[in-house]
Design brief:
alpha/beta; Rossmann fold; globular; binds 1,3-dihydroxyacetonephosphate; binds iron/sulfur cluster
Length: 321
């Protein structure tokens, strides 16, 4: 049966995935930006930090990471004894791509005596050049844990870096990278939406540009946006991050209204991450069935890349994150 025929039969795919995951002792982890049907079938749905944490504590033999490549790579770095699968090996990340390891190495060389902090949205090769990895859930706590006088290089997201500088009083040296999804939200259109929904609160991911963050009522990671929207007594929210997060927000809060923040270009679906959306139920099924594509990583590189991720997990645990 071809992949095209499978798309007609969602129930068939769900049954097969459920059988295969038991038979093969596999856990399915998914990011909040995944297609709805993948979020619904996953064992756990979470932000980048939660996915890394799950990769360390799961006892299953196979991890199927429904997210983008760096997420699968992080899981493999942390759990080398497990088979880590990802439904589509081509699911990359424009932010990780904005920071090639050889150029980042040169940047570090040209700015000696800095502690190197990297966002998790990076390749293993960049992590291997890094002292501590952060996600948007723990970046503030990790930067705060470093001595005030410490000089810091932060890469690759300049928007997150600027935001962390503004809330920690630091002056980190920033790599000039960005995410193509978070950079395209339109200030003008968000302001127009706020007029239309005067009671709506604006929730924004720190990968957004600073003029969006300045008018936001809450800035945080995907899990933090979900938590804020759930715990707030407010009933209407404009959400400035990848639109996949709205699925879980609506599921947990069926009586609240969540409006995706609009992109500059009205004709595009660019508040959706094309890489995240490359994973489909069909590809998930085939990936479990064939046990590929598999994430592999050179052991020498893995040993270098695991240290800054472990440091991140240790500091996160100290802060109850
Ligand atoms: P978080 O889910 O950690 O907030 O990350 C968002 C993101 O851009 C993942 O690619
Ligand atoms: Fe990368 Fe942006 Fe997609 Fe997240 S939303 S995976 S940062 S391209």
């Amino acid at each position: 049966m071809s992949v095209n025929n499978f798309s007609e039969n969602k129930e068939f795919l769900i049954d097969k995935i459920n059988l295969l995951r038991k038979e093969k002792d596999a856990i399915i982890l998914a990011h909040f930006y995944q297609n709805e049907e993948i979020q619904d079938i996953a064992d756990y749905v979470g932000d980048s930090l939660a996915l890394a944490q799950w990769a360390t504590k799961t006892t299953q033999k196979i991890i199927v990471l429904c997210g983008v490549h760096f997420m699968g790579e992080t899981a493999k770095i942390l759990s080398p004894e497990k088979k880590v699968l990802i439904p589509d090996l081509e699911a990359g990340c424009s932010l990780a791509d904005s920071c090639p390891a050889d150029e980042f190495k040169e940047f570090i060389k040209n700015n000696p005596n800095h502690t190197v902090v990297s966002y998790v949205n990076t390749t293993a090769a960049v992590k291997a050049l890094t002292d501590i990895v952060v996600t948007s859930t723990n970046a503030k706590q990790i930067i705060d844990s470093l001595p005030k006088e410490r000089k810091i290089i932060f890469g690759p997201d300049k928007n997150l870096g600027n935001y962390i500088n503004s809330i920690t009083g630091r002056n980190m040296l920033l790599w000039d990278g960005a995410c193509h999804v978070h950079e395209q939200f339109s200030l003008e259109k968000i302001l127009a939406l706020k007029k239309q929904y005067p009671n709506a609160l604006l929730l924004a991911h720190p990968e957004c540009r600073n003029y969006i963050l300045e008018i936001a009522d809450h800035v945080g990671s995907t899990s933090s946006i979900l938590k804020f929207g759930t715990q707030s007594e407010n009933k209407e929210f404009i959400v400035a991050t990848e639109a996949g997060i709205l699925h879980e927000m609506k599921k947990q809060n069926p009586h609240k209204t969540f409006i995706p923040a609009p992109p500059e270009d009205a004709g595009c679906a660019c508040n959706e991450c094309a890489y995240m959306k490359m994973n489909t139920l069909e590809k998930l099924y085939l990936c479990l069935k064939n046990e590929e594509p598999e994430i592999t990583i050179d052991e020498e590189l893995r040993i270098k890349a695991v240290k800054p991720i472990q440091r991140m997990l240790e500091i996160s645990a100290e802060h109850g994150l």
